[in-house]
């Protein structure tokens, strides 16, 4: 720098150079964290820095003729960019969001006389603080409860250091957090230690305080930040992902008490008590977002959608104050329930899991949403991520069952059968075990062992499952009368049991008996079982819609119209994609029965445009039937072929007979198109599948008549 340049220019020169170095340093840290997290491949930042390097060099050449101020700044920029170019080529090792760290949080050791501190759920608050990290996994309460059960200890057992060590040893958890609160004059101090449960070595120690009584939530948040650094999170990661606990939860300790008490009641499925607690929490703090979303989920469970939507909408307005794990829960719920934008909800969860790959709750959300939207490959991957290595335990049962369903739905029959057997081995005693093995064998064509499986079920006294699966087998083979009788007996046997112990719920069973009775040509039986279903409580809208469809097909248009009107009234303004699909299916069935096939086809084409697992088969079947009636033969052929390509999905829904009947529909569509060889081949395949079935069933009689006519 020359002597005639002002001193402030020298300081500006140094300031700019320092800013450049600081910016490049932060960018380098961010680069390593993004690489470790997998946000982009390593070649991306290398290309970016190369471009910056060339730019810096050109800037230096351009400015070297001017004041030494700008030349020095460009020189610093050039040197810093050169260092970055070298460093970004070095792969990161254990930096940023790298391998996950699992830890357990012990209960707070209270050395004060203030027992109110124990009611505020400090362990749950610290869990919220730690789970803001993309790397740290806190052992969830359900796994703690399961381990306590194995230790013959009640779930409410206090997690002392000794108990925590034992749980860590049994679960293979490498660390646990031991922490205490002590008085400090009129205030309090928190101290936490990260301990190795194997040798009791203290790996890290941190202290927060002193702080006043009403600063407990904020202090636990500060403790969480310190522990995250001790567990390996970088300073930048902590700064970037941390939300203050008082704003992420609530500043009101009584509201927090009520919320955590409601969480415990939800875990025990005491929904009425949980609702009361949550309403109390919101009375104390109307902006308590966590309580808002929980209350919204309860009203959604009760199908009080307007109230649920109100709570979820309000929670979404407060989303910016939430931690990332809670924020994504509000977002996906808002898009799913309020905006009815299911694909966006699914994408929100998927994007979140790219940054927080260890969040088991959201992995479960992804699996559920993908399954409902019939993205079975995505659901399968999510369930695999959640399950982890074998052997699986009882807490893995839900995701193991989901994995089996996804594999079956994709026609991966050998994989589905292997999964069913692995679940039977790892988690013996699950009521669904014999069902999974039987259905996998039946769908995969391994019928030689089916009778033996049924015999084992009878020997174990599992009468309900035996009756249901025997009916499924008879329906698949065309023995519709026998299927009807077995399922009717199932209803009688299972009606005396607790609903949670039934392999198939009674509304579904009555609907399936009515459906087979219609295939058998027994309209009186159809009406009898549909009337039973119509008087039951807690019937899914999709089942009620299919019941109305069968009422229409047996000519009881008044009853069908009555259910349609009730559904419209119940759904109100919530005519979302999936609800419109049900309503339009019924409208189309009624139009077809009233002699207007053209309008029926148009209405049902609209109904079938949205893929929703619960109503997919019923809607597609109605569309294909209307397409035949309105002479849209090519559409009918395509729909029936699509149904035939979903064999595993049909068997998953206990619609093995419907899958066979789709072959008959394909034959009729080919005949409609004048494709005689294809039609004859499909009729023969249908007759082969039902060769041992009821010879006098209307479907078999019709197929044989049409087949004979084509042979002439």
What does this entry look like structurally?
The protein has 712 residues and is mostly helical. Among the domains are: 7-88; 101-248, 3-Layer(aba) Sandwich (Rossmann fold); 631-712, no CATH class. Helices cover 67% and strands 5% of the residues. Strands 1, 2, 3, 4, 5 and 6 form a 6-stranded mixed sheet that branches. The radius of gyration is 32 Å and the shape is elongated. It starts with 6 loop residues before the first helix and ends with a helix.
Shape: elongated
Helix content: 55-70%
Low-confidence stretches: 32-40, 88-97
CATH architecture of one domain: 3-Layer(aba) Sandwich
Calculate Rg over CA atoms: 32 Å
What do we call the CATH homologous superfamily of one domain? TolB, N-terminal domain
Number of strands: 6
The major β-sheet equals: 6 strands, mixed
Strand content: 5-15%
CATH fold node name of one domain: Rossmann fold
H/I helix tally: 36
Cα distance spanning the termini: 105 Å
Which class of one domain in CATH terms? Answer: Alpha Beta
Mean pLDDT equals: 86
The assembly state of the depicted protein chains is single chain
What structural class do you assign from the helix and strand content? mainly alpha
